[in-house]
Amino acid sequence: MGDLSKPPFLDKTLHALFLDFDGTLVGFADDPDGITLEPGTLERLSALEERQGGAVALISGRALSSIDRFLAPLAFPAAGVHGQEVRYTAGGEVVTAPPPDDLATARARLQAAIGPGDKLRIEDKETALVVHYRTAPEEADRAERLGEEAVAGCSDLRLVKGHAIVEIRPAGVDKGKAIEKLMQREPFAGRKAVFIGDDTTDEDGFEWVASAGGFGIKVGSGETTAKYRLDDVAAVHRWLDAVARQ
Ligand SMILES: O=P(O)(O)OC[C@H]1O[C@H](O[C@H]2O[C@H](CO)[C@@H](O)[C@H](O)[C@H]2O)[C@H](O)[C@@H](O)[C@@H]1O
Question: Which pTM does this prediction carry?
Answer without folding.
Answer: 0.96
